[in-house]
Amino acid sequence: MAGHTDNQIRIEAPFQLVWDITNDVPNWPNLFTEYAATEVVSQEGDTITFRLTMHPDDNGQVWSWVSERTKFLDEKRTKSHRIETGPFEFMILEWFYEEVEGGIVLRWVQDFHMKDTAPVDDEWMVNNINKNSKVQLQIIKDKIEKAYHSRRASAQRTVSLHDCPQDHRRGGTIQTLLSPRTVGSTSGFMGGATLKAGEAIAEHYHPYSEEFVFCISGELEADIDGEIVPVPAGTAILVPKDTRHRLRNVGGGEVFAVFHLGPLAPRPELGHVDTETREEAAEYAARILAERETKAA
């Protein structure tokens, strides 16, 4: 028998920043809450040998061991193993960095086997690693995202659209500029939406916020609780809270619009409720445009 764990988390930050921070081994005591110290034993190329020392456990025991870690930048992964195995017959840990929409999925895969003389067995260690990995991954996510957003925001609280991650999950391209996470706002958040010809943002509503949308360029159209409302360039529209709405580009050029939502929801995940998929919104937009072309012919 052998133990195996597989844990991951999505980090909203560029690959290079995630890679640099998580591979800065000497700084791990500031990144992880479980490590008290890191001592670099040797380093050659992309391989580093180092000693990790943990904070005392509940019994006052201080665990320390030497590991070797190699980075494979082209493959976006690292591989480590314990040289001083301690209670393990072996311990191998691989980190994978997958680039996804708006960030990186950081994945930890561990394979190991406990010695017969170890105080715990593989099953106990699997449960312990799974529990602890979730905690440490969340801590790492929070620290990296904070570092990323603090770098984006200057002392004047300015954020460039070109530095913002692009979100395509609901259709079009949505980028959040000013928010509690990026600049510490407390009353709402704002961003930009870009729609290519024929693109649409899927229907949704906001239980806690009203939304202001200002079309800067292009021919934007909104469905507000089933009513079609033209929002051409230079026009703004108010979407009351709890009101279903979708946006689509009905022109031949690109639409760019600015949006603002406020007040904030109690938690970010409560602020947006989807009522259709981006594929459904795109199909609906295509059908409407096709019907209009038929009538105009």
TrEMBL record:
Location of the Cupin type-2 domain: 194-255
Protein's name in the database: Cyclase
Organism: Actinophytocola xinjiangensis
